[in-house]
Amino acid sequence: NNLFSERIGPEGIDWPAMLAAHARSLEVARDALLERKSNPEAFLGWIDVPEDTETLRRVLRYRQANGWVEDLVVLGIGGSALGAQAVSAALGNGSVRLHFVDNVEPEPIIGLLRTLEPHKTLVNVISKSGSTAETMAAFLVFRQWLELAVTDWKKHVVVTTDPAKGILRPYAEAEGLTAFEVPPSVGGRFSVTCPVGTLPLAFAGVDLESLLAGARKSNEQARGALEHNLPAQTALVNHLFSQRGKNIVVFMPYSTRLRYLPDWFVQLHDESLGKMRDRQGNEVRTGTTAVRAIGTTDQHAQVQLFREGPRDKLTTFVRLLAPSENLEIPAVKGLEGLEYLFGKSFFELLDAEAKATAHALAKAGQPNYTLALEKLDAYNLGWLLQHLMWQTAFLGELWNINAFDQPGVELGKEYTYALMGRKGWETLAQELKAEGVE
Ligand code: PA5
Cα of 127 to ligand 1 centre, how many Å? Predict the structure, then answer.
């Protein structure tokens, strides 16, 4: 029930022929991923996470036991925040308000602290490494804020981190804080279906059983034959167009509820696929730059560039096939110029705009395809998230790179530690000073 339609324009590709021509390399990629899955060092644990119903039950029990929570503050950055943010904005029922602290700009944090009622606030500190500076700084502040305001601050903190590594795990154990695990074989940007995502989403009221069932559906497709292997197919489309100089991939859902999904996708795609070296250590400099856009809003902004600007883009649209609720456009006397809208629904208009834009791009030789979701619910969104993770993994195979590390990001973290005077980073601090950075 997830449709993939191509609209790739006059410069397009002969799709069946291309799929047949690349069948072997896609099968090799699929088999390699499935074979490496049992090796924890391969960071493919995200494939099996949706099968882990035991952890899900623990998450749900914790949520049930904490009915007093009215505000949940997620302290986490990158992969430790973006998934929960995207899904909660799309599907959260508002029973608990979620707040995301993913930057260290002081003013918004002070502003948030002023609005929160500590007795009704739960803080979920999420860091796989258990040491990221932004998250740890926020944790120190929130921990102190709670300690000063409530009698039992430990009840107000829940930790999500690696089972063994980092600073957070031993601290949680020493203090007796409730702690959930990020499986060691699951990287940050692939962690939305483990407690990194599911714990905040349980508080947001998201139907997690269905979210994981949708992810399992994508697993089924990814493991299967190429004709039904949607992630292998969309990875191939991305691969072929990158070979044709489409260096930018626009990700554009037609939904305000999906407004944070492009942020999650940008991180997943760019951090996984922008690599200097291949698996053998040769310099290759792979990657296409993912760009966020929202329909219809950005039809009145970026679409001008997407249509008439350089032919360096491939656009992925996400379109819903049915609304959850609809709104009729009323007729008004005296505004007959708007007759074409009278009696139609908002969803019809949204749908027409999505189709119109896709076709207008195709006519201008700007390739695009659409991922269509039956409707926006936990099952379909779970499918989409896992689909995009699989697509990323397939692209990593096709480009012969490790899609699961992030050496470029890590270096920035190291420099920050050095600049902030962390113990053990003195030599790096000296080097930076010699280079004029202090
Ligand atoms: O995808 C990744 O690995 C990163 O974006 C991390 O999620 C991000 O750097 C935060 O790391 P951590 O969860 O270790 O605090």
Answer: 7
Of all protein residues, whose CA lies closest to atom 15 belonging to ligand 1?
127
For residue 77, the ligand 1 atom closest to its alpha carbon is 10
| Cβ contact 69:401 at 8 Å | no
CB neighbourhood size of 60 (10 A):
15
Give the tokens for residue 337.
Answer: 């110029």
Q: Which atom of ligand 1 is nearest to the CA of 78?
A: 5
Strands of 285-413 (E only): list them. 289-292, 313-320, 368-373
Q: pLDDT tens digit string along 166-225?
A: 999 999 999 999 999 999 999 999 999 999 999 999 999 999 999 999 999 999 999 999
Pocket of ligand 1 (CB under 6 A): 77-80, 127-129, 132, 135, 187-189, 271, 406, 409
What's the CA-to-centroid distance between 177 and ligand 1, angstroms? 21
Catalytic residues: 271, 300, 413
- Residue 258 pLDDT greater than 80, yes or no: yes
The closest-lying atom of ligand 1 relative to the alpha carbon of residue 126 is 13
Q: Of 303, 249, 231, 283, give the one whose Cα is nearest residue 407.
A: 283
pTM of the model: 0.95
Q: How far apart are CA 219 and CA 16, in angstroms?
A: 23
